[in-house]
């Protein structure tokens, strides 16, 4: 079974997660971030899944109910949503990632499975988990950890594996100042992806021991994995061995879209001629809730009033009325009006852009109405008076920010 950890806020996304958890944040024109982990599991042949939720989970739960309700119990398939619900004690929510699983031991027991795949629900990537599970079984490991190959000094932001020549993990350190290098490759290190495979019987006993340890943080990366590295057999699985990508890709695609800049860039990258992330692959589709909407519509064809989109993705239900759109990604039901221009814009569902608006390098949250004539992306000092401007110069616009602007401008 797959146990997806989806309870985190994702505070580095700032106001974009004020109303939803990070795994529920929209991505790629029609999907949510959690769809990638769930689709990877489904495409890997896994038909038993649980999703642990906690922070502002309504949007996430509703999405999973609408888009992932096709599992059939009579075929021994399940997708359970497990909100933090004080099942252990009235004052105890999920304390850490390991605790989220430990509080649901009885539910995992009811699945009657041999192996448990622990997944983070907040990363963008395509991976065949079957290959990782197979390696775990063949190596007779106590835990197998999914690992990214990253430049050694970039690994300071991750949990890092020190491995021997067989990729057995000999040490695990969180965010080290001087990350250990891969044997034979001094310029790179192995960073944890937050993906783990366990034999359920082994993990069950370990979780119960961890719950009884008052000094534990009840976290996989902080407690469970270091304990196994010290006392058992921990094996590294390299992402390059199971990454699903198109033949011409230059790298194994994995993104943590945890900041406004990273989120904007990963979405805008999809507008490129040949994106590194292949959303058109019918052999490894990304499943999601498909809202019933009409096709996108482009209207007006005058010199200064032409509805057009160049190097952009435009979802169904959009109406592009006399607007020039370039290198932008528009989610479902975005409506833009005449004489407006959008460049490098990520517009979430139900956004309305008024006439003569000029928008560049920005992320617009769901349901925001951009007023007529508003210019964003030209003057950072003016933008940051009303909106959030990131370190990389991307402007985030939410409903609350737009209300503040509207109140000040009558």
Q: Could you please describe the fold and organization of this structure?
A:
By secondary structure, this protein is α/β, with parallel strands linked by helices. The protein has 2 domains: 2-271, Spore Coat Polysaccharide Biosynthesis Protein SpsA, Chain A (Alpha-Beta Complex), CATH 3.90.550.10; 297-409, UDP N-Acetylglucosamine Acyltransferase, domain 1, CATH 2.160.10.10. 23% of the residues lie in helices and 28% in strands. The chain has 10 helices and 29 strands. Strands 1, 4, 5, 6, 8, 9, 10, 11 and 12 form a 9-stranded mixed β-sheet that branches. A hairpin with a 5-residue loop joins strand 28 (388-389) and strand 29. The N and C termini lie far apart (55 Å). Its EC number is 2.7.7.27. One of its GO terms (molecular function) is ATP binding. It is an enzyme of class 2 (transferase). Keywords: ATP-binding, Carbohydrate metabolism, Glycogen biosynthesis, Glycogen metabolism, Nucleotide-binding, Nucleotidyltransferase, Transferase.
How far is it from the N-terminal to the C-terminal residue, by CA?
55 Å
How many domains in all? 2
Mean pLDDT: 94
Content of β-strand: 25-35%
Q: In the CATH hierarchy, what is the architecture of the largest domain at level 2?
A: Alpha-Beta Complex
Tell me the name of the CATH class of the largest domain.
Answer: Alpha Beta
The residue ranges in which pLDDT falls below 50 over 5 or more consecutive positions are: none
- Count of alpha/pi helices: 10
CATH topology of the largest domain: Spore Coat Polysaccharide Biosynthesis Protein SpsA, Chain A
Could you say which overall geometry the principal axes of the C-alpha atoms support? elongated
* Secondary-structure content class: alpha/beta
How does the major sheet shape up? 9 strands, mixed
Per DSSP E runs of 2 or more residues, the count of β-strands stands at 29
| Proportion of residues in helical segments | 10-25%
CATH superfamily assignment of the largest domain? Spore Coat Polysaccharide Biosynthesis Protein SpsA, Chain A
* CA-atom Rg in angstroms: 23 Å
Site (Could play a key role in the communication between the regulatory and the substrate sites): 54, 93
Subunit structure: Homotetramer.
Function: Involved in the biosynthesis of ADP-glucose, a building block required for the elongation reactions to produce glycogen. Catalyzes the reaction between ATP and alpha-D-glucose 1-phosphate (G1P) to produce pyrophosphate and ADP-Glc.
Protein name: Glucose-1-phosphate adenylyltransferase
